[in-house]
Amino acid sequence: MNDTPIKPAVGIDLGTTFSVIAHVNDVGRPETIPNAEGDLLTPSVILFDEDEVIVGREAAKAKATELEKIADCPKRQIGNQVYDKVFGDRRYPPEALQGWILNKLKRDAARVAGDFDEAVITVPAYFDEVRRKSTQDSGFIGGLNVLDIINEPTAAAVAYGYQAGWIDLTGKVAEPINVLVYDLGGGTFDVTVMEVGVNRFRTIATDGDMRLGGQDWDQRLIDHVAKNFKDNYGIDPTEDSTALGKLLRDCKDAKETLSSRSKASVECVFGSSSIKTDISREMFEDMTLDLLDRTDFTVRQTLKAAKLAWTDIDKVILVGGSTRMPAVREMLTSLSGQQPDTTLSPDEAVAHGAALRAAMLSNRHSNAFAPSEIKNVNSHTLGVVANEVETGIAKVVPLIPRNTPLPVVARRVFKTHRKNQESILVQIVEGENNTPEDCSQLGRCAIWDLPDTLDVGTLIEVRFAYEENGRLKIKVKVGGTTQKAFRYEIQRPNSLTTEQLESWREYICETDE
Ligand code: ADP
Ligand code: MG
Question: Whose CA is nearest to atom 23 of ligand 1?
Answer without folding.
Answer: 256
